[in-house]
Write the C-alpha cells for this entry.
Amino acid sequence: MTGIGTADLKKMFDAIAAAIEADRDRLCQLDGVIGDADHGIAMALGFNAVRDALAPLDLSAIEPTALLNMAAKSFLNAVGASSGPLYATAFMRAAAAVKGKATLTDAEFVALFQAMAQGIKDRGKAELGEKTMVDAWQPATEAAAATHAAGKPLAESLQAALAAAERGAEATKDMVAAKGRSSRLGERSLGHIDPGAASAVTVIGAMVKSLG
Ligand code: ADP
Ligand code: MG
C-alpha cells in the first residue's frame, strides 16, 4: 500500500458526484417534506462542480491539500443552499488536516475524515440530536476512528463509518429539527428523515466504495 494520493482522491470525488446524481430525486423528495425540496439539486450542483474543477488537473503536480481546497472552493461557489458552506468547510478542514503530505496513510485518511465532520459541526453549530447531517457525520467519524484504533484496515474503518451513518440518519426520524430550515416546523418535523443526514450516507457510501 503506497498510500492514498491525489488520483485516489479525485476518483473518490468522481464516485461521490455519480452517487449523488443518482440519488438526487430522492434527496429532493426528502427535503420536500421538511424543507424546500432543493437538497438533491444543491448536492448535485456542488459535487458536479467539484468533479469539473478537478477534471483538468495534472494530478502528478499537486498535493492532496491543493485538491481538497479546490473542491471546497468549487462546492461553495456552486451551492447557494446551506449545505454549500457546510461541505466547503468540511473540505477546507480536510485540506488543512493533510497539509504537506504527498500521499496519505490510513491513519491520515481517518484524520481527514474526522476533520470533515468537525468542520461541519463548527460551521453549522449543530449538536447531535438536532436532526441535521451531523447526526450521520459524527457517529460515522467516531466509528471510523474507533475501528482504526482497534488496528483494522481502512476499508473496515470506512465500512463501520457507513453503518454508523446509516443508523444515525435513520435515527433523525425520531428527532425534532433544531437547526436549519426544517427547525421552523418544530414537532411537525418528527417522523421524517433529515435530507442532509440521508445525503451524508450517500457521500460516505461512495467514499467506502471508492477507497475501500
Ligand atoms: P437549505 O436548507 O438551505 O435549503 P439544503 O436543502 O441543501 O439547504 O440542506 C438542508 C440540510 O442541511 C438539512 O437537512 C441539514 O442536514 C443540513 N443543515 C442545515 N442547517 C444545518 C446546520 N446548522 N448544521 C448542520 N447541518 C445543517
Ligand atoms: Mg433545502
In short: Residues 6-34 form the longest helix (29 residues). The radius of gyration is 16 Å. Residues 31, 35-36, 38-39, 42, 81-83, 86, 120, 124-126, 132-134, 179-181, 194-197 surround adenosine-5'-diphosphate (ligand 1) (CB under 6 Å). The chain has one domain: 6-211.
